[in-house]
Amino acid sequence: MHVEIWHNPSCGTSRNTLALIRHVGIEPTVVEYLQSPPSKARLAEAIAAAGLSVREAIRQKGTPYAELGLDDPSLSDDALLDAMVATPVLINRPFVISPLGTRLSRPSEVVLDILPPCDKPFTKEDGEVVIDADGRRVR
Questions:
Q1: Most buried residue among 9, 24, 69, 76 by CB atoms closer than 10 A?
Q2: What is the value of pTM for the model shown?
């Protein structure tokens, strides 16, 4: 199964998502989107496929969101997408694209919705159990 993750290695959620993908036996295509941002069309496609609005896909925390005036409700999706491509730190992460769907994996265990089933225990790097010892997803 081909899986792609838009990854930021300094983000714990992104690291946990990548670890979950690997945990189910898939070596994904890892796109470090801060260095290689998606095209505007690809970004718009991923956002739509994830069932999100463009505003829901923008990262506000720790970004120049407010400084760039992106909190202006009159800005079009087109303008927001332009800002996200020009300043990729504005792209919320991690986006994961698989044949089973596309998700903004926040929290990281959301990625399990678009991966093959896994019955092996998994614990996040902070100690939170995602798949218990009996192979059941903990919600």
A1: 24
A2: 0.93
pLDDT of the chain, 139 residues: tens digit per residue: 999 999 999 999 999 999 999 999 999 999 999 999 999 999 999 999 999 999 999 999 999 999 999 999 999 999 999 999 999 999 999 999 999 999 999 999 999 999 999 889 999 999 999 999 998 998 7
- DSSP letter assigned to residue 9: T
Among 25, 125, 12, CA closest to 62: 12
Number of residues in the chain: 139
From the centroid of its chain, how far is CA 132? 23
Distance of CA 106 to the CA centre of its chain: 7
Q: Find the helix packing angle between 40-49 and 77-86, rounded to 10°.
A: 120
Q: Active-site residue among 3, 5, 11, 70?
A: 11
Question: Has 118 been annotated as catalytic?
Answer: no
Give how far the C-alpha of residue 33 lies from the chain's centroid of Cα atoms, to the nearest Å. Answer: 11
